[in-house]
Amino acid sequence: MHHQILIVEDDPDQLQNYSDALCSSHYQVRAFDSDQQVREQLDAEPDIALLDIHLGSNPDAGFELCQWLLGRYPDLPVLFITSRSDEIDQIFGLRLGAWDYLTKPVSLMLLREKVAAILKRARKLSEVVSDRSAGQDELESELALDISGARAMWRGLPLNLTVTELLIVEALVNAEGAVVSFDALAQKTRQTVVTNNTLSTHIRHLRNKFKAVDPDFDRLVSVYGLGYRWQESEGGS
């Protein structure tokens, strides 16, 4: 089965070049020149999305489309291809959940290699997640994780966690109260570049999501300069 590639690029020449290059590598391509087209016509999850950021008159359309896509398909690998080279744009794109970020001009050979590498990484992540979930859906009596199904529950109530957040929680709980370093947690995420600030953002989102269903939640503990740990309840799990 050929991989399905979504490309969103408003420059017709670049859109055609990207499409031709990936089709020559035997990928199936769905090409759009606007974010609105994607919202109206996309009817199935692609295997990877290649997004420009500035589309039409909207300089941030690609960022907004990334959020929309990941809201529908949380595991979707996203690769930004854009002329915006500022570091802040790259950081923002990665924090949104993109797997990688390329600045134009991009050689077609590099594009093919990037797509192949991301698809390979996505396949390996899926295999690892599947193996870990077998026989280990529930890691703590109060916490239930279904990694392969991208679901989590806390004290019987559903949590709306991303795959990255699920993997972070799994790593912390498996450490059995030990501190998990920033580097170790970064390796658990699917992103190419992960900073301590990015991890702090994930942890903040996790705390907010747990507290939304349990205002007294206090299990995620920051250990200054070292990382994070999962604090067991009094009397054990």
TrEMBL record:
InterPro entries: CheY-like_superfamily, OmpR/PhoB-type_DNA-bd, Sig_transdc_resp-reg_C-effctor, Sig_transdc_resp-reg_receiver, WalR-like, WH-like_DNA-bd_sf. This is Response regulator. One of its GO terms (molecular function) is transcription cis-regulatory region binding. One of its GO terms (biological process) is regulation of DNA-templated transcription. The keyword Signal does not apply. One of its GO terms (cellular component) is cytosol. It comes from Motiliproteus coralliicola. Residues 134-232 bind DNA.
